[in-house]
């Protein structure tokens, strides 16, 4: 009896909770808990209801699909109900599902399955009458949904008229509206940029976009659709007897169907399909949260029929949850290699996305503010693929009374030095080339800060840097702790005895490490630059700097305005490089290398012709970058034609302006003239121009001849990204060939990308390249390109 009383109480609480979550999800478009949490509660409820069928309330959420329709859209009654799917979460549960089916269909030898990805968007029903899209509706509660016709009409891939002639008079197509990952990323980047609320995941973004009362907003959101079934169809004879064939019929009519769907001869292929899609999940351009397995034969489907809310002939075989709830125990502040202070969330350990997570980065203060986070909050933690775990939201109504604000430290938690605020401008590489500024905090202690020293040395000796084998993080920590090393150059002064004084070293291991270090005294310029750990400078930028500027001295002397002429170096990176080499701490650290004594750079040469020619022949670019109001490309070109050198700009006066004309032989306008004459009076500006001119002089560009470009390939200046499986060559080999021809190979697609080489199974990079309108070629075309350039 007590048992039943307890069960009744639990059922009632679960119903109340789930109904609330349904309301938030379906009606308010604002879910507050992850799916996995919802699924778990639903399972508990179903188990209890199964054990106590007489206790099931009439309004149990286990018996209905979703919530009520939104009031602000008109309502649509579905001619055929829109059903949902039951879930299985393991191979065992999948086998149980198959057994139920085979038992019911005992007369059939083989049961074919249609296997599909479970798209993570929202279900819609499209109604075509005489081939014209007349209505689109959300699922709502399965019987009645919202009329979202105007919004759906704006979705690019949904045809307003069916193709061909062969369609029934009335045809309802059902499928999922979703937001591709690339569109979602772009939308959130924009939102952050405009200080607006971001969406937690592509599904919420799709739902939010589709439920806009203003369809112009929906139109801008780049939604997509895949059909996965049919609703009411007035002509039975038109319909194939196979679910898969029906989808092919729908595809014939111009509706998109997910290209991943497969017809499987029997259930044995289903687990493999699940695993294959799970492996490729990150590479797909859209989010999925499992696979859907459907008995293919329509006759068999009819025999199997339905339970309350879902068909017995299909089930969703879900992936492990990527979102979970947990508690934020504390926030600690970590000091990185460049002194940047990053808040790190310490979490109550939680199993999510296949691993136990107990930490998550919070990036910076803006991120904490954006999330509105407090210590002890219940947070949504998301771990998708190999991406580092993220906190994507806070469950505000779970906030305890003793929650605490997160306070940023004013002094470095490692060395107690002052913390400075640095405004960092991020340029988003989207079509519209947007940017936003975010504050980061940096410890000013540089290498006197133990945390920065340890991280700097770990970076210095890493594989892409000086590459010292056997010098692991723990050894670096000991070397720093024991003060044997206070800067990277000290590594070369260590003796075998020094290593023997550390934990875990014996004669042989100490000797080996000593030799590994001594063997790395001779280093290429690009590796040396990389190893310094300049903020924003990875291996690819280091290569560009080394290739274009040729020597450490030139890199050290190059003004940021000139640095920004180098491919891969934007204004922000140029500033970082310049500041790094002009920082007084760093000058001391670099001097400790006593070049050609402690360390030798093996491949220095003159600045490249490519760089020299930009600076010497296209000087107008320098003028253009000086930030003089109203001086654009045309005025810059006009000014350059009359200047002896850059410093001569500072000598301009009213009279001289009377002889400066633009390409159309017109005098420069009065406002340009005044703007220049005002600017050259500013002392900061004069200093800057002098600095640039003296940087140009120090780079010694005059002697660079065209012969110096002999090693430069014909793909110079072009940026390539490689993705997917190539047909005729290994991806890494193709990358090397391109680099050998002067091209740059980078890992992420941006507006700076010239070509995306897409092999088979190309995923999100392909989608992003398409979204950005970048040239997309396959490996055959890439090899042709190389051939034209002397491959
Ligand atoms: S079939 C009668 N196929 O999952 C069966 N649904 O959890 C109706 N979904 O409401 C659904 N991908 O929004 C089906 N390939 C797929 C799907 C899919 C995603 C969604 C759909 C449905 C929900 C059920």
Features:
binds 2-(butylsulfanyl)adenosine; 30 helices; alpha+beta; 5-stranded antiparallel β-sheet; D-amino Acid Aminotransferase, Chain A, domain 1; 791 residues; DNA polymerase, domain 1; 5-stranded mixed β-sheet; Helix Hairpins
Q: What do these coordinates show?
A:
By secondary structure, the protein is of the alpha+beta class. It folds into 5 domains: 63 residues, Helix Hairpins; 243 residues, 2-Layer Sandwich (D-amino Acid Aminotransferase, Chain A, domain 1); 75 residues, DNA polymerase, domain 1 (Orthogonal Bundle); 178 residues, DNA polymerase, domain 1; 70 residues, BRCT domain (Rossmann fold). The protein has 30 helices and 24 strands. The strands form 7 sheets. Strands 2-11-10-3-9 form a 5-stranded mixed β-sheet. Strands 14-13-12-15-16 form a 5-stranded antiparallel β-sheet. The longest helix is centred in the first third of the chain and has 26 residues. The radius of gyration is 32 Å and the shape is globular. The N and C termini lie far apart (84 Å). About 3% of the residues have low confidence.
Question: Radius of gyration over alpha carbons?
Answer: 32 Å
The name of the CATH architecture of the largest domain is 2-Layer Sandwich
Can you give the helix content as a percent range?
25-40%
At CATH level 3, the topology of the largest domain is D-amino Acid Aminotransferase, Chain A, domain 1
Strand numbers in spatial order across the main sheet: 2-11-10-3-9
List of distinct ligands in this structure: 2-(butylsulfanyl)adenosine
| Terminal residue distance | 84 Å
The CATH homologous superfamily of the largest domain is named: DNA ligase/mRNA capping enzyme
Principal-axes geometry comes out as globular
Mean pLDDT: 88
State the total count of DSSP E strands. 24
Helix count, per DSSP?
Answer: 30
In what range is the share of β-strand residues? 15-25%
- Spans of at least 5 consecutive residues whose pLDDT stays below 50 are 64-70, 426-436, 707-712
Reported for the largest beta sheet, the result is: 5 strands, mixed
The CATH top-level class label of the largest domain: Alpha Beta
Q: By helix and strand content, what is the structural category? A: alpha+beta
How many domains is the backbone divided into?
5
């Amino acid at each position: 009896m007590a048992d039943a009383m307890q069960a009744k109480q639990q059922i009632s609480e679960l119903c109340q909770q789930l109904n609330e979550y349904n309301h938030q999800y379906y009606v308010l478009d604002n879910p507050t808990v992850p799916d996995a949490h919802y699924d778990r509660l639903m399972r508990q409820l179903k188990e209890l209801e199964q054990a106590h069928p007489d206790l099931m309330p009439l309004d149990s959420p286990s018996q209905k699909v979703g919530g009520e329709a939104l009031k602000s859209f008109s309502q649509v009654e579905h001619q055929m109900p829109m059903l949902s799917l039951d879930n299985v979460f393991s191979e065992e549960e999948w086998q149980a599902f198959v057994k139920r089916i085979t038992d019911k269909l005992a007369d059939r030898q083989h049961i074919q399955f249609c296997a599909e990805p479970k798209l993570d968007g929202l279900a819609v029903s499209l109604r075509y009458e005489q081939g014209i899209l007349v209505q689109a509706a959300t699922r709502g509660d399965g019987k009645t949904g919202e009329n979202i016709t105007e919004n759906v009409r704006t979705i690019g891939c949904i045809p307003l008229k069916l193709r061909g002639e062969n369609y029934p008079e009335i045809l309802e197509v059902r499928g999922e509206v979703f937001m591709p990952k690339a569109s979602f990323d772009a939308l959130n980047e924009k939102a952050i940029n405009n200080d607006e609320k971001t969406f937690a995941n592509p599904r919420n973004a799709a739902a939010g976009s589709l439920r806009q009362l203003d369809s112009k907003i929906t139109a801008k959101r780049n939604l997509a659709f895949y059909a996965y079934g049919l609703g009411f169809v007035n002509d039975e004879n038109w319909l194939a007897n196979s679910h898969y064939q029906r989808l092919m019929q729908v595809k014939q009519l111009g509706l998109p169907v997910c290209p991943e769907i497969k017809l499987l001869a029997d259930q044995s292929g289903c687990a493999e399909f699940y695993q294959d899609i799970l492996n490729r999940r990150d590479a797909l351009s859209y989010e999925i949260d499992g696979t859907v397995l459907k008995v293919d034969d329509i006759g068999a489907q009819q025999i199997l029929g339905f339970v309350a809310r879902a068909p017995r002939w299909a089930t969703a075989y879900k992936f492990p949850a990527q979102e979970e709830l947990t508690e934020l125990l504390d926030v600690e502040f970590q000091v990185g290699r460049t002194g940047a202070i990053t808040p790190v969330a310490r979490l109550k350990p939680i199993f999510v996305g296949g691993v136990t997570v107990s930490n998550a980065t919070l990036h910076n203060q803006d991120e904490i503010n954006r999330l509105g986070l407090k210590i002890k909050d219940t947070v949504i933690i998301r771990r998708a693929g190999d991406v580092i775990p993220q906190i994507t939201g806070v469950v505000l109504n779970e906030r305890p009374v003793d929650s605490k604000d997160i306070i940023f430290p004013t002094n470095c938690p490692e060395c107690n030095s002052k913390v400075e605020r640095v405004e960092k401008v991020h340029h988003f590489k989207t079509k519209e080339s947007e940017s936003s500024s975010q504050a980061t905090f940096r410890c000013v202690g540089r290498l006197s800060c133990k945390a920065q020293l340890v991280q700097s040395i770990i970076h210095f000796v890493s594989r892409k840097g000086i590459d010292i084998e056997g010098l692991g993080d723990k050894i670096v920590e000991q070397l720093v702790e024991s003060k044997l090393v206070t800067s990277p150059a000290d590594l070369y002064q260590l003796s075998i005895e020094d290593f023997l004084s550390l934990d875990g070293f014996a004669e042989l291991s100490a000797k080996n490490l000593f030799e590994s270090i001594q063997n790395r005294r001779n280093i290429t310029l690009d590796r040396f630059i990389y190893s310094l750990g300049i903020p924003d400078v990875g291996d690819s930028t280091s290569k560009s700097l080394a290739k274009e500027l040729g020597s450490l001295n030139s890199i050290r002397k190059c003004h940021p305005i000139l640095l920004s002429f180098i491919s891969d170096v934007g204004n922000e990176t140029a500033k970082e490089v310049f500041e790094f080499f002009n920082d007084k701490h760093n000058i001391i650290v670099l001097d400790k290398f006593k070049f050609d004594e402690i360390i030798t750079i093996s491949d220095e040469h003159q600045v490249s012709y490519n760089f020299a020619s930009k600076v010497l022949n296209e000087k107008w670019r320098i003028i253009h970058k000086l930030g003089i109001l109203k001086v654009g490309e045309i005025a810059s070109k006009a000014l350059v034609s009359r200047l002896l050198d850059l410093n001569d700009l500072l000598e301009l006066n009213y009279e001289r302006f009377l002889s400066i004309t633009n390409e159309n032989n017109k005098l420069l306008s009065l406002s340009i003239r005044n703007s220049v004459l005002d600017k050259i009076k500013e002392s900061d500006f004069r200093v800057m121009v002098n600095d640039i001119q003296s940087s140009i002089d120090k780079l010694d560009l005059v002697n660079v001849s065209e012969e110096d470009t002999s090693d430069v390939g014909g793909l110079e200046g072009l940026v390539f990204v490689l993705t997917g499986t190539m047909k005729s060559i290994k991806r890494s080999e193709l990358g090397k060939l391109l680099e050998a021809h002067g091209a740059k190979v980078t890992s992420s697609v941006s507006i700076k990308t010239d070509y995306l080489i897409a092999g088979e199974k190309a995923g999100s990079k392909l989608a992003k390249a398409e979204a950005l309108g970048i040239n997309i070629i396959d490996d055959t075309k890439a090899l042709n390109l190389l051939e034209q350039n002397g491959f």
